[in-house]
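Now for our target.
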Amino acid sequence: MTILANFTKGAFSTGLGLLGIKIFRENNEPKVLQAETVLTSRLREAATKTRIEFKQAVQNTRNDFVNGKMNDMMGDLKKKLMNDDMWEAFDTIVYLVENVKKLDMEDKEYNSSVVPLLAILKKTKDAIKMEAAVTEEDLYLERCPLWFPELSRGQRFGKYALNTYPASWESKPSGIANEMGIDPEDILLTKFEDDDVLCPKFILLLDHEVKSVVLAIRGTYCLKDIVIDMVCDETPYLNGFAHQGILSGARKVLTEARECLVDVLGDHPGYGLVVTGHSLGAGVAELVTMELLLGEQDILNPEVTPVSCVALAPPPVFHSHDGVSREVFEAIDIFINSDDCVPRMSLGSLTRLVLSLRAVDTLNLTVAEQFNILSDKKDEATEENLQKLILAVKSVEQDKFLFLQHPGKIFYMKKDKTTQEPEYSIWVEKSESFTGCLYLNEDMVSDHRKTSYEEALGIL
């Protein structure tokens, strides 16, 4: 209303001025030609200024409206495009990696808010995935049958890995046995208490039905703890490099369990050792297995005692240009659930994620352009901006840190999220399909949870 009133007032004043000129001209034309010219020029300038001010006021109002709407939208963006778990994951990842000094990134604020940048990066990566993938057969190496031996082992021993979470809260052997689904007398050793050694929590038990000694290692309850653990140097190991923190944890477990393992394997000839875990516990289990098969240890002879591993949702833990040995590859079965972010998470992939975020921010998209991309507006300018984003993200190179890999056979449990009732298919995959890039997805956290793996393994 203020804008319209000002414009009307200006137009009315201009009209009165021109009418006065007309009357004055009729009575005094010979005398005032010069004055009329000056006055007319000034009135035209006033009218032009009024139009400019009106146009600017309209533009300012439009901008205020757009920015207000954008601020409202950005405030709701977390709810619309990211659930709480996903936002917590993003926030933790960005905070931690940006504050690691050795990344040597520019210490400056983003030009845009981190929330829309993350959402735009997700849109961009989704577009890149759509360009790259055509069918499931193009994405995965081989679809597995409804039943196969590795799946049966994954279900049996994966149950022990997942049950360590509730069991670790029990104080009595009967309560631990009940949570683990075994008899109390089959518990050989528990290490669930906190101590100064910071050893991963684990339980050693017997599964007589399949003649196995089972070393089940508990993972962490908190995603933030996982991300913190991922921001860690690699250390030389065997013919390559291993995650330093997880390797340290594996060696602590072996130190704590050594005496009991030697005794029980001596008392049960013909029994094999199965190491299992979920999340960080799975990463520890993989390196325990590698240490027993190839490392310098005096616990067992792998030529006499079979050693194998069932790892659910492990982070990448090992890298070698020569790859892992056939012995290790065949001994470790890895199960990854749908969009679980942890098997895709290493210092290398975390760094690439933040560099991609910087690449998006460097394009300096306006608020309106960000809004158009996030709302899937179909016009030439938005499509051009999307292509710029795709090129910028594809151009990101990260060679400062290794992309750690998975040292075993990978079975990818893919959930069909279009059906009312959960349905899964299972595929053989290669490590590089997971470790090269950390994709942003609304289920990246929930698919990592204990309950999600219980559902997937239970349905399969």
